Each structure stands twice: as C-alpha cells, then as structure tokens.
Amino acid sequence: MNIRLASFLILFTLLIASLFGYTQAGNSSKRSSGNWWKEAVIYQIYPRSFKDYDGDGIGDLKGINSKLDYIKSLGVTAVWLNPVYSSPNTDNGYDVSDYRKIMSDFGTMDDFDSLLHGLHERGIKLIMDLVVNHSSDEHAWFLQSRSSRTNPYRNYYHWWDAERGKPPYRYSLFDVDGNAWAYDSTTNAYYLHYFSRKQPDLNWENPKVRAEVFDIMKYWADKGIDGFRLDAFQFVAKDTSFPAFPKGFEKHFNLYYAMQGNIHHYLQEMYREVFAKYDVMSVAEGAGNSFKDAHDLVDSQRHELNMAYAFDGVDLAKPGGYSLLHFKDVFTRWDSAFEKNGWLSIFLSNHDQARMVSRFGNDSPAFRAHSSEMLTTFIMTMRGTPYFYNGDELGMTNIRFDSIGDYRDVQTLNAYQHELKTGGNLKKFMTFQASVSRDNGRTPFQWDSSPNAGFTTGTPWIKVNPNYKAINAESEDKDPNSVLNYFRKIVSLRRTHPALVYGKYKLLDRNNTHVYSYLRTVPGERFLVMLNFGPVPASVFPGFDLRGSTLLLSNYENSDTKRGKTNVLRPYEARVYKLRS
Ligand code: GLC
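# alpha-D-glucopyranose complex -> structure
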C-alpha cells in the first residue's frame, strides 16, 4: 500500500472513531458520549428487594436479568446497583468482605457479567457502588489487621492501643452505644468504626490502602462498568492523631467528619489512577458542609469527581411535614450555586430513605398517584442528573411496621437496642421509625398481584407491603393513566428536550406556599413547570402569558389548556408547558 493511501486510511479511521466517540483509555476502549452522565436518567436498583429468581426470598442478579426489558421500558439510561460484593450482610452489602466476588445470595460472577452485557445490549449503563470508607470486619485485611499489632495489615485500619487510655470520643452512626471505638481484646486495642462494629473504617492515610482501592476500581472498570458511586466517601480522610472534639460535637458530626485532611489529595490520586484512564463516571455520596466543599469535589478543573449528592433537599421532610418555601429555597440555592460551574444530582429518595411519596407527597389512596407523579415531574424537570429509586415509578409507599421483629435494618435494630439500654420511650421510637426507617424503602418490589407481589416464590427476607394488589407493575403497565406510565412519559420528555437537562432555571412566584413554578430556558426555547404540592386546589401566580404555549404533559386527564384558566392547579397537579419563544 502506498504511504499516502495508508495515511489517508489512518486519518479516516481516526475521524470515524472520533465521530462515534470512541476513547482509548488504559485497557479499556469503549464508546463514550462526553457528558453522558449529565444527560443520564439514573435508576437505582436495590438488588435484595428487586426480584428473586431462585426462590430463597432474597432478590438476586438473575432476578434483575429477568427484568431487563422492564428496565428498558422505563426509558432510563443508567442503573446504579447497590453493593453486590461478598458480604456477611450486616448492613445489606455495605459491609464488604471481598470486593472482587459476588455475594452468594445474589449469584455468581457469570450472573454479573450477563447483567452487564444485558444492560449494555439495551443501551443502559451500569454504575457500581464502591464502599471503601470501611470494609466488613470479615474482610481478609481486617482479619489480618486485628490478629497482631505487628501484622503488615495493621495500618489498613485505625487502631488505638489501650495502654494510651481511652481514645477521644468518636460518634458512630449505627453503634448500639453510639461509640465509634470498639475494644478488641486480641491486641488490647480499639478500632474505629463510624458505622456498625462490623464495619471498621479503612485507613486512607495508608498509601497501600489507596493502591488496593484503585486496583479494585480498575478490576471493575476493566470489566466494562460505566461508573462508581462512592459510598460515604466524604468521611474517608481523618486526622489520625485523633484530637478531642468539643462536647456535643455529635449533633453536628458532619462538620467534624466530612471533607477532612487529605481528601482532595486522595481524590486527585484516584483521578490520575482510575478516572483519567477509563471512561467511567463518578458520584460521591455526601457533598461536605458548604457549596465550596461541593464545588471542590466536582469542579472539572480540579480533576476529582463528576458529581456529588447533597442531603439538604432529602433531609427536609420530617415526620411532621415540611415547608414548600423551604423546599424551593434549598433547590434554588443549590441550582444557583452550580449555575456556572459543576453539576448537581437531583433525588428525593434512595435506599437510605423512607418512600418518596410517603415523605414528600401524600400516600393516602386519594392522592398517592397524583402526588407521586407531581414529585417525579419535579425530579425530571430540574437541572442536574436525576437519580430515581426503584419502586417510586409505581408510587410504592411506606409499609409502617409496628413490631420491631419486622425490621431488618441494622440502623433501626441497633437504635432500638440503644433505647432499651437507656430506658428510652419505645412507643415514641416505634412511631418515629414507622415514618423514617430505611426499611420503608426496602420492601420487595411490587411486580404483580400474585402472592408476595411476584417478588419471590419463597419467604421474602422482609415483608411485602400489603398494598401490592392495588399497586404493582403489571396492573400499572396496562393502565395508560398509571403512575408507571406517567413516569415513562416524563422520562421521555426529559430525554427529548435538552433544555430540561441544561436549561437555565428560574424560580417564579417565590412566596407561593402551595405551588412551585419555574422556568427552564435555553436560547430559543422556554419551558414552564408548575407543581401543586398540596391536597387542595391552589392558585398559580396571575398574569403569566400562556398564549401560544403548548401543554406538553400533565398528571391530570384533560388538563386545562384554555388560555386564562391556568390560575388554579388541582391537588398535586403538575404541568409542563413549552412556551412561545
Ligand atoms: C451509606 C449507604 C448506607 C450505608 C452506609 C454505610 O450511607 O448509602 O446504606 O448503611 O453508607 O455503608
């Protein structure tokens, strides 16, 4: 072949490759479309409760595999899978005993590979949960570490030798006594665990630990996964001299635990070692204590992460309710803080929250469907990447257990033990848990009206919500006006209008206590979203000129499109208009 022809062919190949967005990265070479994670609609699957294939009462990977067409039918573009690694399951997989193996309850690596393949075949990306603030105490590293003070793995974790006296108090989120230091008699020392005693914190100050984590990430990235959600990552860096914190610090523990020490250094190292070499997105759980913290995590110039998710929004809903003005204020402030630089995550629930409709909407039969749809409209029309929790697309509700024997979550169970030990008010505790416990969001996915909602043929690991005969995917699929079909419509709307992803956000009618209205604008296109957050008809600001506008979607049939009649929204009504430009 002559040289000119050869160089032409090379150039031509490069051009085609760049047109199709192929990137060459480390060992991995795969299709990338730049900011896909900004345009993504992320569907979170809690594997334990999604679909049980083998009849042992626990959801599994084969179960998810059997539902890929359902997932595809939603229109979502990525799946975030809660941890599926080997784990003794103290915290449902957030206590990993082997980061390169699949939890036996969930299946095998072959099942994982088929899942990844099946998702990719359908154009859906896969985001893995990376739990590396801590491991399980059954991980080989910890077994070594606790075996002697001179073991090479000793410094993989944080130890405080008992002859130094008691370590300065650290608060634990899940410990029965609220104490993050556990005494271990084998070596007469205390180890640190911000979560349960079976979740010892890894020592990120040790470069060997970081190298191990980066290797684990490469292992999964080489398999072809598309992203990592970094669990509890804001807590990884610690001042290992463990200075005393002021009395009562635990009431604001985030100020003392989040974004400490060398965290940015570790993230930049992770970027160099992993993110720069693979086409994977990254999102951290937790965004620190200020907009600056959040910006520093996601500023693309700093080469750390793509996104972080903050809790300000999701934390607003309390058992007694929440104020819409406050809600608007939080989301508006977060939007404006990221208007020019950085990117947001938008969510109202996940596996750590009670159900979205029970917390932010109204799960009584009269309003459940409309309020779920209204909340979904909010999530899908805000700037930022939407994260949507499985089951919310059906409008699944809190189960509200009244017996402690029904709960499975280590957080609730340990908090109950704490109440018992300290003579707390158990009645009050149970009432509180019924509305806030994470188990509310973890009951089995409601597939159909057959026994156990079609989740399992065995005994489910946690009770199925008895309302499954009325609320399930099969019946909602058939009903064009169901919550499920509304979800599909709004997802498709977001995906066909880049303005809903990238458009400038502007709050309207700020002081309206019932209706949340905002504009989303790109040059040449304007969208208006109006959401009634309450159970009574509510007036929208007067005088907004809707002439020439098109009602793209509403959660009420025959929603009023006549001009001049847009000043009242029905209970939990949501409308999305395309305005005359
Ligand atoms: C994160 C997870 C949560 C888990 C905790 C400890 O907050 O989302 O489910 O219990 O970390 O890993």
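# post-check
The domain at 140-192 is CATH 3.90.400.10 (Oligo-1,6-glucosidase; domain 2).
Residues 91, 94, 131, 195, 231-232, 285, 351-352 surround alpha-D-glucopyranose (CB under 6 Å).
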